[in-house]
Amino acid sequence: MSTKKLPTLTFNAGEYVVYPTHGVGKVSDISKQTISGTELEFLVVNFDKDRMTLRIPTSKLPSAGLRKISDEKTMKEALDTLKGKAKVRRAMWARRAQEYENKINSGNPVAVAEVIRDLYRKDNVAEQSYSERQIYEQALERLASEVSVYSQCSLEDANNKLFEILAQQKDSEQKEVAE
Question: What is the model's pTM?
Answer without folding.
Answer: 0.82
